[in-house]
Amino acid sequence: MTHPGPDRRHVLVIGAxxxxxAAVARRFGxxxxxxxxxxxTEETVASVADELRRAGVEVGTATADAADPAGFRAALQAVAxxxxxxxxxxxxxxxVADDVLTEPAEHFAGALAVDVVGALTAAQVFTxxxxxxxxxxxxxxxxxxxxxxxxxxxxxxxxxxxxHSAVALLHERLAPDGVHAAAVVVVGVIAPGTxxxxxxxxxxxxxxxxxxxxxxxxxVVVDGS
Length: 225
Known about the structure:
This protein is α/β, with parallel strands linked by helices. The protein has one domain (7-96, 112-150, 161-223): NAD(P)-binding Rossmann-like Domain (Rossmann fold), CATH 3.40.50. Helices cover 44% and strands 21% of the residues. The protein contains six helices and seven strands. The chain has helices at 20-29, 42-54, 69-82, 105-133, 154-174, 198-210, and strands at residues 7-14, 34-39, 59-63, 85-90, 136-143, 179-187, 219-223.
């Protein structure tokens, strides 16, 4: 059976918390997109979904934990089996204070699963249908420590640096097939009413998605300093 092509008016937000994830879904919702929200817990995703529905956005939900690679892939495959989104946003990161010299190897392996391997899993699950259709967008949330390492957040620095490289590779591989892969690199702390207000940052995701082929950027840095 032929797999249906991606729904170009469907955005999937992985890491749909009440801040940036909700803002991205809300921004696409204003353009008439329906949204599927994915979060680690049912409590989180249900709360964000209720907020968006009150704003008039058509919303579906799923739960998945990027720290569990096999379970995460299975959850995303279940979403894809129902409807492949035309836009996928990977907005996941493990933000903890840690030290490169003292944390056990298992800690860094788990952090990398969340910060970068989950993004690659999302690409592997959803971009085949996009490539077959010759259209689609994959956006990820990068971070300042990926550009300038932060000794107090070692795992985040390693993960976001790896994600930076992953997006560069994805951009190069997918662009010839009509799929735009790019990162929004947020430098600073996201907070409402600041230069890094979630709704302001969400506008950058929409702008990247709306870029015409031939003018695609692989990265936009949003600096709150």
